[in-house]
Amino acid sequence: MFYHAKVQLNPEQAIDLSQTAKMKIQEVIQYLESIAPRAYQESYDNSGLLTGNANTELTNALITLDCTEEVVQEAITKKCNLIIAHHPIVFKGLKKLTGSNYVERTIILAIKNDIAIYAIHTNLDNVHQGVNKKIAEKLGLQNVRILLPKQDNLSKLVVFIPQSHADAVLTALHEAGAGQIGNYKNCSFSVAGMGTFQPNDVANPHIGEAGKQEKVEEIRAEVIFPSHLEGSLLKALKQSHPYEEVAYYINSLRNENQEVGAGMIGELAEALEPAAFLAHLKKSMGLKVIRHTPLINRKVKKIALCGGSGSFLLPHALKAGADFYVSADFKYHEFFDAEKHLTIADIGHYESEVYTKDLIGELLTKKFPTFAVNFSGTITNPISYYL
Ligand SMILES: [Zn+2]
Q: How many CA atoms lie within 13 A of 227 on its CB side?
């Protein structure tokens, strides 16, 4: 039997809302990056706007896993001037654009037709509400958390504020994205103390006068924030703080950021026999085939997963005590590393990530209820199975 690994969305599901209010492509990008900041992409990645001008008015958007020539053609037909793809079609430097391969031809076709291609790749893999959350949702997992949280992407701001302005400054910092810890927002710590300073001749002090030593009751406030927000946070600080020279310092933190990182782990509501879990996996992900290591004679409860190429996370799935590790792109020798501690289920790269289209569509329609979203009907999976 010959078939395509067809787990595509029904194109009829397309939410065609061409009567949308006018908006620019930039607004869509800004919103998506408020959920999956580009700062969270891996160093090898190339997420972001790949062709087009973000200031162009949006007509319709086409959501796809891969951007190929066929997908650009589909965008032309459906009058979409924005393609939102998970995988970036341009992954490494292009030295020429002559149409000698599918990457060049896709880019040329998009540019000729004023179509913006935007990729949201490993930044969407690495956030809590991203690719892996969608897979966990399909499998009905509970108590999900990031399997390998990232370090070194959090900072701490310490600032000294006159008591009269403490609330206003903290509110501005929180609005700029500081003080978010897990399910808690607007977190901060403050302690009262005495600040001293002496303005010079050219200073324009909010309190005090030139050449005179001052003592002011101040608050020392501390907030945690994602490091990539430093610029906007300092802007908010300087706008809300009354002093000409704001006294502050920033430290980088080594803390793990539980909200950002690779893979996910969660639990089934009820433990299943291994074969029953495989059946559940096949059904819930719409699979035709699963490559897996030998089943282990114990009930299955804890599931680790990673959409796309996830073999690098196997040691972490083992360490976390997972019963199954669901991912894709395992090489022959890598399967041996399961060592009967867990079962690897390789469900295919495309098959593991195809619901990312749903995820992007849901995120967009939540924010822009009248947004023109179309799901691509092109099956971009380059792999077929002959059974
Ligand atoms: Zn992928």
A: 17
Q: How far is the CA of 134 from the centre of ligand 1 (A)?
A: 14
Q: Name residues with Cβ closer than 5 Å to ligand 1, which is an ion.
A: 308, 353
Computed over every residue of the chain, the mean pLDDT equals: 92
Q: Mean pLDDT, to the nearest integer, of 370-384?
A: 90
Distance CA 277, CA 324 (A): 9
Question: What distance in angstroms lies between residue 353's CA and the mean position of ligand 1's atoms?
Answer: 6
- pLDDT, one tens digit per residue, over 268-295 is 999 999 999 999 999 999 999 999 999 9
Paired with 251 in beta bridges are 156
- pLDDT value of residue 21: 60
SS3 359: helix
Burial readout 175-211 (b: 16 or more C-beta within 10 A, e: otherwise): ebbbbbeeeeeeebebeeeebebebeeeeebeeeeee
pLDDT digits over 299-309, tens only? Answer: 999 999 999 99
**Would you list the DSSP string of 247-305?**
-EEEEEE--EEEEEEEEEEEEEEEEE-HHHHHHHHHHHTT-S--EEPPP-SS-EEEEEE
The answer to whether the beta carbons of residues 79 and 115 sit under 8 Å apart is: no
Please give the distance, rounded to the nearest whole angstrom, from the Cα atom of residue 180 to the centre of ligand 1: 29
CA 32 / ligand 1 centre spacing (Å): 18
Measured in Å, residue 213 CA sits from the centre of ligand 1 at: 61
Counting residues of the chain whose pLDDT is more than 90, the rounded percentage is: 87
354 C-alpha vs ligand 1 centroid, how far in Å?
9
13 confidence band (pLDDT: 50, 70, 90): very low
Which residues does residue 262 pair with via DSSP β-bridges, in sequence order? 148
d(Cα 186, Cα 170) in Å, to the nearest integer? Answer: 8
Distance 141 CA to ligand 1 centre (A): 21
88 CA to centre of ligand 1 in angstroms: 10
Give the Å distance between the CA of 25 and the centre of ligand 1: 24
Measure 216 CA to ligand 1 centroid, in angstroms: 56
